[in-house]
Design a protein that fits this description.
Phosphatase PAP2 family protein, transmembrane, globular, about 80% helix
Length: about 190
């Protein structure tokens, strides 16, 4: 049983560290950094396909009882939810590329697609933490884009992983593998494409 105060902090970290929140911040930030106001617009466009639409898809599935909640905790449910989320992210990626969005924004969304594909492959036989993968991938991209001083956010990534374990959503191994995949997949792709 998780103590009440600790559970409250764990829920706050878990909800605040949701993948959509990383994308809602990261895409506009990278767009702004790449191309000012125009880049910010591209970042918001990317966030629409990587955060807003996937959230609506997950809520729709939750209301229709295709899965239990917006975190899609059961491994089998994640396989059912993945096509809708992937479809949104892939569509956004294709549009960003076709419409000649700033390279940093295209690279971010492409890296996200690659991380999601890696997680999906693992999900067929094991549950892995998407929260941790996106948080560590976002941190890796921030370090690549803005420099090593962004590592000051590393404790936040660790705390998000802690929250997932503390809330009994994942094991330490599932969080660790998620962190490893997020950073290992996103860093080379973002570096190459950005």
């Amino acid at each position: 049983m998780v103590p009440r105060g600790e559970a409250c902090w764990a829920w706050l970290l878990s909800d605040g560290g949701e993948p959509r929140n990383w994308m809602l911040i990261l895409a506009p930030l990278l767009g702004w950094h790449a191309d000012g106001w125009a880049g910010l617009g591209w970042g918001l466009f990317a966030a629409l396909f990587t955060a807003v639409l996937p959230t609506l898809i997950l809520r729709f599935g939750e209301r229709r009882r295709y899965w239990g909640d917006r975190h899609v905790r059961r491994r089998q449910d994640r396989i059912v939810a993945a096509p809708g989320v992937m479809g949104s992210v892939l569509t956004g990626s294709a549009l960003l590329y076709a419409l000649d969005a700033p390279a940093a924004v295209v690279a971010l969304v492409t890296a996200m697609v690659a991380v999601l594909l890696a997680l999906l492959m693992i999900t067929f036989f094991w549950k892995v933490s998407v929260h941790s993968a996106v948080a560590s991938g976002a941190l890796a991209i921030l370090v690549t884009g803005f420099g090593p001083w962004m590592l000051v956010l590393a404790p936040l990534v660790v705390l998000i992983g802690w929250s997932r374990v503390r809330l009994h959503c994942h094991t330490v191994g599932q969080v660790a593998v998620g962190m490893l995949i997020g950073a290992a997949v996103s860093t080379p792709l973002y570096t190459f494409l950005g």
